[in-house]
TrEMBL record:
NCBIfam families: lipoamide_DH. This is Dihydrolipoyl dehydrogenase. It comes from Massilia violaceinigra. Residues 6-341 form the FAD/NAD(P)-binding domain. Keywords: Cytoplasm, Disulfide bond, FAD, Flavoprotein, NAD, Oxidoreductase, Redox-active center. InterPro entries: Class-I_Pyr_Nuc-Dis_Oxidored (IPR050151), FAD/NAD-bd_sf (IPR036188), FAD/NAD-binding_dom (IPR023753), FAD/NAD-linked_Rdtase_dimer_sf (IPR016156), Lipoamide_DH (IPR006258), Pyr_nuc-diS_OxRdtase (IPR001100), Pyr_nucl-diS_OxRdtase_dimer (IPR004099), Pyr_OxRdtase_I_AS (IPR012999). SUPFAM superfamilies: FAD/NAD(P)-binding domain, FAD/NAD-linked reductases, dimerisation (C-terminal) domain. It catalyses: N(6)-[(R)-dihydrolipoyl]-L-lysyl-[protein] + NAD(+) = N(6)-[(R)-lipoyl]-L-lysyl-[protein] + NADH + H(+). Belongs to the class-I pyridine nucleotide-disulfide oxidoreductase family. Signal peptide: none annotated. Pfam families: Pyr_redox_2, Pyr_redox_dim.
Length: 479
């Protein structure tokens, strides 16, 4: 351990924590970033990157890419004049590739720590009181304990999977996101509890590879947080790909059996359904992870949902203690956590620091993808705000036709009086990349006219953003 006293100590080396550490180092602060979770490290050592990099965003996207390539070969190659015979999947190699991507990125983070003079402390951390104005953290790991002091603390301990009562997660047959990313074979029958982002993405992976996938959800409405047009289009797309949905259900039990698992639930009509599956993935959301931090030792209280209360600048009720990412209010998104980490470090360094929570994009990485930023139509209606809307389909986009991926649209919502863009919603094979232009438009308070006046390259998918902006005033050029 290089030091025992720091300007900043960060608990957690996930998307919020490691970015905060790098920014703190850039600002000339002495910084320690502490991580005690080994995740999937083959040596069993604590590993940087958090849930997102190790058992979430990055590995799932690697598997989505592999399964999408296989799906294209099997179902789409022939229409391009590319003939293939008997394509097969080596699941072990697919998982190994995914693991290789993760390992490369974790090593990259540790390189960036060294580059920015960040001490990466591989240990479990908990509060042990104060000494003067400094906070004391007790570190434990590898059979030893030590203590460090820091003037400022950033809690970035992330989240963990929400559990179903009386359901045992063994990550062999009944899995959370960790087990779902390391199947050693393609399950014939897969049941996913939760039809949200995680469920749709993991369901897409295994459906493309040949699984019979059923998603069940207690919510009666599909993707209730999305704009209604997005939810409708995504349900149509996912159903057409063979994903089966049972919404508005109530689970009675999930039990492991001799040949897999049995999921028993009541459908929305109250009828009992027993669904046999080879694998079950429980993906019903996540909850803040603050276990073992001993927050009471410094008098920091959680709210009634287990989050650490903070203000708009991520300050807690205690001086010089901040919290970011999944342990605080707002969407549990890696990029939101990273932005908060940068903001907090800049505030500590005496700079302004800010996060525009109204311009944080959301993405679902299925195919087609769904992405949105800003307000949905139902939010504007609830707020009583008058707005106008423009929509443009990819079926009228030349690049989409050339790709053979014409599902989806771009929808732009703008204020009825000022024309300021209030929200942009995209369903497309490249929605995750296209939403960047929309986020910038919201950040700079652009009008739909501003977007419509920008020359967009042709032929491109993102021309549809311009066309939808033109459609706000009923003057789209290509429909």
């Amino acid at each position: 351990m290089a030091n025992t006293e720091y300007d900043v100590a960060i608990i957690g080396a996930g998307s919020g924590g490691y970015i905060a550490a790098i920014r703190a180092g850039q600002l000339g602060l002495s910084v320690a970033c502490i991580e005690g979770n080994a995740y999937a490290d083959p040596r069993g050592e604590p590993r940087s990157g958090g849930t997102c990099l190790n058992v979430g965003c990055i590995p799932s996207k690697a598997l989505l890419a592999s399964s999408h390539l296989y799906d294209q070969i099997v179902h789409r190659a022939a229409e391009h004049g590319i003939l293939t015979e008997n394509p097969a999947v080596n699941v072990r190699k697919m998982i190994d590739r995914k693991d290789g991507v993760v390992t490369k990125m974790t090593k990259g983070i540790e390189y960036l720590f060294k580059k920015n003079k960040v001490d990466f402390l591989k240990a479990q951390a908990k509060f042990a009181g104060k000494v003067g104005d400094d906070y004391v953290l007790e570190l434990s790991g590898a059979g030893a304990t030590s203590r460090i002091n820091a003037k400022n603390i950033i809690i970035a301990s992330g989240s963990k999977p929400r559990q179903l009562p009386a359901v045992v997660i063994d990550n062999e047959v009944i899995c959370d996101n960790v087990g779902a990313l390391k199947f050693d074979e393609i399950p014939k029958r897969l049941c996913i509890v939760g039809a949200g982002v995680i469920g749709l993405e993991l369901g897409s992976v295994w459906r493309r590879l040949g699984s019979e996938v059923t998603l069940i959800d207690a919510m009666a409405e599909f993707l209730p947080a999305a704009d209604p047009a997005v939810a409708k289009e995504m349900l149509k797309a996912m159903t057409s790909q063979g994903l089966k949905f049972a919404l508005g259900i109530s689970i009675e039990r999930i039990e492991r059996t001799a040949d897999g698992a049995m999921v028993s639930y009541r459908d929305r009509a109250g009828a009992r359904v027993d669904l046999a599956a080879d694998k079950v993935i429980v993906a019903i959301g996540r909850v803040p992870s603050t276990d073992g931090l001993a927050l009471d030792s410094i008098g920091l209280q959680l709210d009634d949902r287990g989050f650490i209360p903070v203000d708009e600048r991520c300050k807690t009720a205690l001086p010089n203690v901040f919290a970011i990412g999944d342990v605080v209010r707002g969407p549990m998104l890696a990029h939101k956590a990273s932005e908060e980490g940068v903001m907090v470090c800049e505030i500590i360094a005496g700079q302004a620091g800010h996060v525009n929570y109204g311009a944080i994009p959301f993405v679902i990485y299925t195919n087609p993808e769904a992405a949105w930023v800003g307000k949905t139509e139902q939010e504007l209606i609830r707020e009583g705000r008058t707005f106008k809307s423009g929509q443009f389909p990819f079926s009228a986009n030349g690049r989409a036709l050339g790709h053979g991926e014409t599902e989806g649209f771009v929808k732009v919502l703008a204020d009825a009086a000022s024309d300021m863009v209030l929200g942009v919603h995209v369903v497309s094979s490249a929605a995750s990349e296209m939403i960047g232009e929309a986020a910038m438009a919201l950040e700079f308070h652009a009008s739909s006219e501003d977007i419509a006046r920008i020359c967009h390259a042709h032929p491109t998918l993102y021309e549809a953003v311009r066309e939808a902006s033109l459609a706000v005033d009923k003057r789209a050029l290509n429909i």
